[in-house]
């Protein structure tokens, strides 16, 4: 695909061909809008213009990303030997867009694409594995959220702080979600101990992130809402087992955060003068059915497990959105 930095002039054309192949009509048209009508395309063109000057490490990372998204047989959990030859589709055959009512074919009958052989393993083939706290593994997302949200706050839940989300370019498609009282100090700590450079995702709407009340409780609720997508891995930098990674898209992760932020700023917990505990206010109990309903997942991997097709899927709107 891109063996040297001089090949970046073809990158936009390759992306457009990829969009034509994998997207349906409406999404394809939206993605291929002219830069004037599409801020994302403007940003992409600006980024591509700077690619010839990137470091060798970033060039290698970009090539790994392109390998991953252009080869459907590559999976994050599939560790490849170093001498494995990756086949990268460079000119896929154009397919007709399949309607949502058309059953998905188990096998592809399209012609074989032209391929290029690259003797380099994907750095995305890492040791991520599913992870869930045992206490909630057998509960649905709704049941787990309702169980925690109605429990009186612990002393650690009473403090304010920040929810952070960061990503590592080496682990494309994974989001780390945690809490802290100092965003910059926490990021520096992760970078130092893990010997990696991480970047925060933008979760603020006004350019500056606000403190979150009862941040420990909100972190736990976010983790539970995304529990079906939670992953763990042994860090090669610090040697620890990190269990707060999630295989979700950035957009969905931010939506989940925003839902819980909007709920908690309404001060749903109050100090009970009789018990001395922080509990859900009586006038907020009616919000639990809605807020414990997970944010609808769009264009993400399906939740593991079987679903009874005879019953309609409940997709209530997230609370107060």
Descriptive account of the structure:
This protein is of the alpha+beta class and 321 residues long. The protein has helices at 11-22, 25-31, 39-50, 56-70, 141-149, 183-194, 215-225, 250-264, 288-291, and strands spanning 86-91, 114-118, 129-130, 162-167, 175-180, 199-200, 230-234, 241-246, 269-271, 278-280. The chain is globular. Residues 169-260 form the Bacteriophage T5 Orf172 DNA-binding domain. It holds the Pfam family T5orf172. Residues 87-117, 295-321 are annotated as: Disordered. Residues 99-117 have a biased composition (Low complexity).
Task: Please tell me what the overall shape is.
Answer: globular
Round the mean pLDDT to the nearest integer and report it. Answer: 74
The run of helices and strands is HHHHEEEHEEHEHEEHEEH
Unreliable segments (pLDDT under 50, ≥5 consecutive)? 75-126, 299-303, 305-313
Radius of gyration over C-alpha positions, nearest whole angstrom: 22 Å
Spatial ordering of strands, largest sheet: 3-7-8-5-4-6
Number of helices: 9
Main β sheet profile: 6 strands, antiparallel
Tell me the quaternary state.
single chain
Counted up, domains total 2
């Amino acid at each position: 695909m891109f063996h040297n930095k001089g090949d970046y002039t073809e990158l936009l054309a390759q992306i457009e061909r990829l969009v034509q192949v994998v997207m349906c009509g409406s999404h394809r048209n939206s993605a291929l809008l002219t830069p004037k009508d599409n801020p994302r395309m403007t940003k992409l063109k600006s980024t591509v213009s700077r690619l010839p000057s990137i470091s060798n490490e970033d060039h290698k990372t970009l090539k790994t990303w392109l390998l991953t998204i252009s080869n459907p047989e590559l999976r994050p959990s599939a560790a490849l030997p170093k001498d494995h030859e990756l086949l990268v589709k460079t000119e896929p055959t154009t397919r007709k867009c399949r309607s949502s009512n058309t059953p998905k074919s188990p096998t592809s009958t399209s012609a074989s694409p032209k391929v290029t052989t690259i003797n380099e393993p994907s750095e995305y083939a890492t040791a991520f594995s599913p992870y869930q706290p045992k206490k909630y593994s057998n509960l649905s997302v709704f049941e787990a959220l309702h169980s925690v949200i109605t429990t009186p706050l612990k002393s650690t839940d009473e403090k304010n702080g920040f929810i952070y989300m960061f990503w590592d370019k080496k682990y494309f498609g994974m989001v780390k979600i945690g809490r802290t009282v100092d965003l910059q100090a926490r990021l520096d700590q992760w970078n130092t101990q893990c010997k990696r450079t991480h970047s925060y995702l933008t979760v603020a709407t006004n350019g500056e992130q606000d403190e979150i009340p009862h941040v420990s409780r909100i972190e736990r609720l976010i983790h539970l809402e995304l529990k079906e997508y939670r992953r763990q891995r042994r860090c090669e930098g610090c040697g620890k087992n990190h269990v707060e990674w999630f295989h979700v898209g950035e957009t969905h992760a931010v939506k989940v955060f925003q839902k819980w932020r909007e709920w908690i700023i309404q001060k749903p917990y109050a100090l009970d003068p009789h018990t001395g505990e922080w509990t859900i206010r009586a006038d907020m109990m009616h919000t639990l059915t809605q807020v414990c309903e997970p944010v609808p997942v769009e264009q993400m991997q399906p939740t593991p497990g079987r679903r009874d097709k005879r019953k309609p899927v409940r997709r209530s709107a997230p609370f107060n959105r």
